[in-house]
Every structure is written in C-alpha cells, then in structure tokens.
Amino acid sequence: MRKWVSRLLLVAAPAVVVVATPTAAIAATNDNIGTATVVGSLPFTDTVDTTGTSNEPGEPQLCSYMGQTVWYTFTPAATQVVRFDNSGTGFVTNINVYQVTGPGFGGLSFLGCSQNPNPLAITAQAGTTYAVQTGILFGANGNLTTNITAVPPPANDNFASAIAINGLPFSDAQDTTGATLQAGEPSPSCSGAAVGTVWYSFTPSTAETVSASGSPYYQAGIVAYSGTSLGNLTQVPCGVGGITTFRAQAGQTYYFQVAGSFSQRGVITLNLALTPPPVVQFFYYPGDPSIYDQISFYDQSYDPGNLGFASEAWSFGDGKTASGSGVSHRYAADGDYLVRLTDTTPDGRSASASQTIHVRTHDVAVTKMTVPQSASAGQTRKISVGLSDLRYSEVVQVQLFISTPSGFVLVGTLTQTCPITGPNKSISFDFSYTFTKVDAQVGSVTFMATATIIGGRDALATNNTVIALPTKVS
Q1: d(CA 470, CA 473)
Q2: Which of 242, 243, 244 is closest to 261 using CA atoms?
C-alpha cells in the first residue's frame, strides 16, 4: 500500500482543459427602426452592445457605411437646438439624423450626419418626430453610447439682449450651437443662410472707421447694421475677405449679427477695432535709372480694412506729380530725388511712403576705330579703338573681334579706367593683330569692337559697338 501511494505521488497530475461554449450575441432591442428606442426627455444617454445588430433591407447608408446600427426617435415638446454625439467608445462612430415624415425608410428626410468626436446639432421643431441612426464603422462592434442633449441659447441670442461694446478693441467668443433665429430677423446676406445668430451693439462717441471680423474666418459670418430696432435695420455694405469696414458716426448705434457661415454652428469670435491706416509701399524699374529711362513706378500698398483706395498721389521730387496705381516718369538731369506716394482710402484714412531715387546716367561711346586698309599674312598691325565718356569716370572693357567665314571671333580684350573725356576727345584702346594665311585666303577681314562699363549699366548701349571698313589681306 505504501509503495502504491509512493508511486502515485511520483506521477504528474494530468492538465485540465476547459472548453468554452460560445454564447450567442443578443441583438439590441432597438436594432430596427420599427423598434427604435423612444427618447422621452433630454438630456438622454443610452449604451447598447451592437454585437449581433444588423442592417435592415433598404436601410439608408448616407455619410458612412455602418454595418450594424441602432435607432432612436424623439419628439420635442418645444422648439430647441439639440445636439447628438457618441461617447465612451474607442471606435469610429457615425450618427445620421432624419425628420420622420411617414412610415418606414421612405418616410425619412435626411438632416445631417457626423462622426465622433464631432457632434451634430439641429434645430428641432416642437411636435416634429426625429429618427437617429447610429453605429460603429469598419465592421466593428461593441458598446456604443449615444447622447442627445438640448443646447441652451447664448445670452445674446436675441436682438434685445445684444452685448454692448463699450470700448475698442473688443473681442468676444460665443458658442452659436444653441443660437436661434428670431421672427423678423434679417437674413445675413454676407455669409449665406444662418441657423442661429448672436447680437452685439456699438455706439461710438466720436466718428471713426471701424473693422469687424470673425474667427475662425472661414466659419464666421459678420453683418453690421444701423438702426434702432429689429424692424428698421439698414445693412452696412458687406466687407471683403471676411472684414467689414465702415465709417461709424458719433452717437449712432450699430448692431452686429454674428453667425456661422452657411449654417455652421460652433464657437465664433467677434473682433471689432479701429481700422489702421493703409500700409503704403512701392517699387520702381529700372533700379539704376538714367535720364534716358522712362521709370515705371508701381503701387504695392494695401488697406487693412479692405476698402481699397480712392486716390494714389505721386510726387517725384522734381516738381512733377502723377496719380494712379501704376505711373511712369523721366528725369531731365542726374541727381537724387525723393519720391513720395500718398494713398487715401474711400473713408479718408491716408498714409505715405517715400524713397530716394538715384538717377545716374552712365554712358560711354565708341567714337572711332582705326584699322589698316591692307595687310599681308604674317604682318602684325595696330588696331585702335577710341572711346569717349561725358559724365563719370568709368572702368571700361573693350573687346575686339574679327570676321571669319563662320562669323565674328574674339581677338582680344582690354580693360582700363576711362576718365571724363568731354564731347570732342577720346581715350584709345590699342590692340595688335597678326594677320594669318587664312585671312589671306579669304581676301579681306572686318574688325568689330564693343565697349562695356564694368559695374554699371550703360544708358545708351546702342553706341557701344562699331564695325570698321574691311581690310584687304594678301
């Protein structure tokens, strides 16, 4: 007996294998639109396990494909803004909201959709039934939480409760998700149809130009009005580029209607400030002008208020003036000239900018060229190029070329300082050239000389090249 027990102790116990029995997934009770969960009051939160849910035949899939969906319906007793979202899941989810106009899927009128974490908000009308279709994307399933909440309107939702702007600059952010439209409220023509607006009022003590803008600029719609009540508002002209600029008169009350552009909802910031003066700047061409150049001047200014310019006035520093965004001017003499541009906006804001224009006429000319009338192969002869300079001492490079059957080729280059010579004198650039047998075979050659100012632009380059009479070569 002892031996048998000992042998039992030496034998390892066999492993226990537990086989799990699959449990059938239980579909959520609101899997179908006909068994949708009825939402009695808000706020409402419900969590269901989408495992085992499915799509019904003909079930709409509008914004994103949801292979497994659940449904809710609710009918608000009062008109209110309602927000829908999913929470408490690591999945990508989608919500579609419909207005129920009849039985089945054919009686659904689509209102909008959204993927988490972005909520979807609509203005739900009293007594109207709405259907909510929600599910997990990409074939996933698990616990899905749906939240439906009423969003209260902001404090300045109505015209009568407009927030007063008592000083500039002013900035205020409001969540327009719960904003509504009053009966008789003007439509914001600058930013497309709005689903809800907020209001501000501003009464300046002195006449001043102001600019109103919203942020984010691509979502904000700002419209300004003058008047005393909702029924007698006159719209200020719409702005450009998201900025509305106008001349506000002392003692006149102005109202700003703020909304999300094209029915968007979210946090919108109104910015109101005194409009700064224009930013004036210009450029000209050429940058090294001479008395022979018609200088082109271009206005590169801009108006921070986006009103543009009523006038652009130029003063060229030599007693001459011009107007326009692009002008030209030619100076009669070398010198330094202060050019001033003054821009004025339609509302009277003005600013100026100036630059000193240095007019320098650099000009040398090839006045003569001395070459032999004839020469023999192997003979070295002098080629002389005469250069005149009337204004400034210049460093000049002269290049000598000779003709060949295929065109002119370079013979040599000389560089030297050319002092002011006056109209009747010249400085000589002397080259020597040894005529070749090839020159003799051709029978004659022609020399050409060109002059180039080093470090400057020649104002009259047309007189910088000369071609001599042919030289006979034997």
Answers
A1: 9
A2: 242
Cis peptide before 117 (omega within 30 of 0): yes
What is the secondary structure of 429-446 as a DSSP string? EEEEEE--HHHHHH-EE-
Q: What is the pLDDT of residues 229-277, one digit of tens each?
A: 999 999 998 876 689 999 999 999 999 999 887 778 889 999 999 999 9
Environment class of 359 (CB within 10 Å of its CB; exposed 0-12, middle 13-18, buried 19+): buried
Q: Strands, DSSP E only, in 236-325? A: 243-248, 254-260, 267-274, 282-285, 295-299, 311-315, 321-323
All structural domains of the chain: 33-151 (2.60.120.510), 159-274 (2.60.120.380), 282-359 (2.60.40.10), 364-473 (2.60.40.730)
Is 439 in contact with 445 (CB distance < 8 Å)? yes
Q: What is the pLDDT of residues 122-161, one digit of tens each?
A: 999 999 999 999 998 887 888 899 999 999 999 999 999 9
The whole-angstrom separation of Cα 356 and Cα 198 is: 51
Q: What angle do CA 265, 266, 268 make, to 5 degrees?
A: 110
In whole angstroms, give the CA distance from residue 4 to residue 161: 97
Report how far residue 457's alpha carbon sits from residue 443's, in angstroms, rounded to the nearest whole number.
Answer: 38
